[in-house]
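hey
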C-alpha cells in the first residue's frame, strides 16, 4: 500500500509540476486559442464516430434504404468522371494520377452528402457494437449492413443499366467506361479479395480522419479514395457499377458478377474496414474508456434522452463527422 501511495503521490506531483510549467500570463482568449488548435485525442475521435454509429443503428429502415439507394446512384459518377478523364487526356505516364482524382468525385458526393455507403458503416456502426456487444446491438448491426448493402447494389445496378444504353454519354466516354470495366474483370476472386481488404482499410481511414479535419475534408477524401483508383484496388460499391455494366452489355454472366466479384469484394472490404481497422481503432482507446468511465449510450437502444451525458473528461469540442453516407 505504501508503494502504491508513493507512486500515486509521485504521479500527482509530476502532473502538478507539468501544470506549473504552463505560462501564467496567457489571457482567457489565448487559452481558448490554445484549446482550439490542440489535436483531438484518439478517444475524442473514437467518440465522435461511435455516436455517429449509434445514430445510424437507430435510423428507420426506410431512411437507411433511400439514403443507401442515393449512395449507390451517386457513386456511379466516380466511374463516369474517371472514364471522362481517361477519354480526354493524352496517353501519358501521369494520366492515371489525374484519372484517380476523377474517381474520387462519387465519394465526394456521397460523403459530403451524408449518404449511406456500405464500406463506411463497416466502421461507424461497428464501433458501438464493439463497446457493447449485446444481442440487440449485433441484430441492429446486421440490419443496417443488410439494408444499406442491398440499397447500394440496387443503386449501382440502375446506374450501370442506364450507362449500358449508351444514349447518355458521348461515344468516347462510353468506350472508356467499357475499357476501365474490363480491367476490373481481369481480377481473380483472390485478387479481388486482397485488393478489397486494402480498399476497405482506406475507406475506414477516411471515416476516422474526418472528425479532426474541419477544413481539409475534401483533400482527405480526394487523396484516400483517389489512391484506391491509383493503386488499382477494389471497392465493392463503386466496382459493382463496372461489373454490372459488363453484365448489362453481355460480356459476363450473373454468376460471375456475384461469385467472382461482388462476394470477394464485399468480404475484403468488410475485413479491411471492420475486422482490421475498427478493431485497431477500438483497441487503442479501450483502456482510456475504462479510466474515464463507460459511455452511457447503448448501441441497440431506443432514441437518446435529451440532455443525457456520459461520464467523460472535458474535451475539445468536435464537429460532427461528415461520413461516407461512402
Amino acid at each position: 500500500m505504501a508503494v502504491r501511495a508513493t507512486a500515486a503521490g509521485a504521479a500527482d506531483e509530476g502532473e502538478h509540476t507539468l501544470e506549473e510549467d504552463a505560462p501564467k500570463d496567457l489571457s482567457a482568449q489565448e487559452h481558448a486559442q490554445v484549446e482550439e488548435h490542440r489535436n483531438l485525442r484518439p478517444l475524442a475521435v473514437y467518440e465522435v464516430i461511435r455516436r455517429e454509429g449509434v445514430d445510424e443503428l437507430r435510423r428507420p429502415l426506410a431512411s437507411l434504404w433511400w439514403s443507401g439507394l442515393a449512395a449507390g446512384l451517386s457513386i456511379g459518377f466516380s466511374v463516369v468522371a474517371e472514364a471522362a478523364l481517361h477519354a480526354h487526356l493524352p496517353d501519358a505516364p501521369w494520366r492515371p494520377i489525374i484519372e484517380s482524382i476523377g474517381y474520387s468525385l462519387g465519394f465526394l458526393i456521397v460523403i459530403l452528402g451524408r449518404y449511406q455507403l456500405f464500406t463506411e458503416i463497416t466502421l461507424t456502426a461497428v464501433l458501438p457494437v464493439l463497446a457493447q456487444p449485446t444481442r440487440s446491438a449485433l441484430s441492429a448491426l446486421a440490419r443496417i449492413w443488410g439494408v444499406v448493402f442491398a440499397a447500394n447494389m440496387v443503386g449501382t445496378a440502375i446506374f450501370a443499366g442506364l450507362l449500358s444504353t449508351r444514349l447518355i454519354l458521348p461515344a468516347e466516354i462510353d468506350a472508356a467506361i467499357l475499357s476501365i470495366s474490363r480491367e476490373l474483370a481481369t481480377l481473380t476472386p483472390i485478387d479481388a479479395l486482397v485488393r478489397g481488404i486494402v480498399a476497405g482499410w482506406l475507406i475506414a481511414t477516411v471515416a476516422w480522419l474526418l472528425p479532426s479535419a474541419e477544413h481539409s475534408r475534401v483533400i482527405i477524401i480526394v487523396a484516400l479514395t483517389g489512391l484506391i483508383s491509383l493503386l488499382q484496388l477494389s471497392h465493392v460499391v463503386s466496382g459493382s457499377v463496372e461489373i454490372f455494366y459488363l453484365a448489362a452489355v453481355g460480356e459476363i454472366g450473373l454468376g460471375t458478377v456475384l461469385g467472382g466479384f461482388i462476394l470477394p469484394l464485399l468480404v475484403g472490404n468488410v475485413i479491411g474496414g471492420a475486422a482490421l481497422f475498427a478493431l485497431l481503432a477500438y483497441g487503442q482507446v479501450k483502456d482510456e474508456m475504462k479510466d474515464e468511465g463507460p459511455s452511457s449510450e447503448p448501441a441497440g437502444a431506443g432514441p437518446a434522452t435529451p440532455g443525457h451525458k456520459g461520464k467523460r473528461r472535458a474535451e475539445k469540442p468536435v464537429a460532427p463527422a461528415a461520413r461516407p453516407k461512402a
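The two ends are 53 Å apart (CA to CA). Confidence is low (pLDDT under 50) at residues 1-8, 301-326.
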